[in-house]
């Protein structure tokens, strides 16, 4: 068993993100999980991620606040306990369009 206490989680720079503090919780350099990794991201009001796509499966689960997620075909506002799956190579962007902080869990399963 490998436990990551949030107070000891290491921050990382999330590419193409702004107004964001990101922390890796499991996988990659934190634990031997090799089929996915898990993180948590905190967004200031107006913070978010630019248009981007990767070859990985991605799941986001909102823990606090609201986050708007746009794809090329739709837009949705996610609230607490809502989740979204973004498939490989699906372009997306997201923003905390509120005046309150927002947080979500990130689960990414690279397709190797």
Mind explaining what this structure looks like?
There is one protein chain. It is built from no helices and nine strands. By secondary structure, the protein is mainly beta. Strand 5 and strand 6 form a beta hairpin. The protein has a single domain (6-110), classed as Jelly Rolls (Sandwich), CATH 2.60.120.
Query: What is the N-to-C succession of helices and strands?
Result: EEEEEEEEE
CATH superfamily (homologous) name: Jelly Rolls
Q: Which strand-content bin applies to the residues? A: over 45%
Q: Characterize the biggest β-sheet.
A: 9 strands, antiparallel
Helix percentage range:
under 10%
Classify the fold: give the CATH topology: Jelly Rolls
Low-confidence stretches: none
Gyration radius, rounded: 14 Å
CATH class: Mainly Beta
N- to C-terminal distance: 25 Å
SSE layout and pairing:
Elements: E1 10-12, E2 17-26, E3 37-52, E4 56-64, E5 67-71, E6 75-78, E7 83-86, E8 92-95, E9 102-110
Antiparallel strand pairs: 1-2, 2-3, 3-8, 3-9, 4-7, 4-9, 5-6, 5-8
Task: Name the features.
Jelly Rolls, 112 residues, globular, single chain, mainly beta, nine-stranded antiparallel sheet
In short:
With 112 residues, the chain is mainly beta. It is built from no helices and nine strands. It has one domain (6-110): Jelly Rolls, CATH 2.60.120.
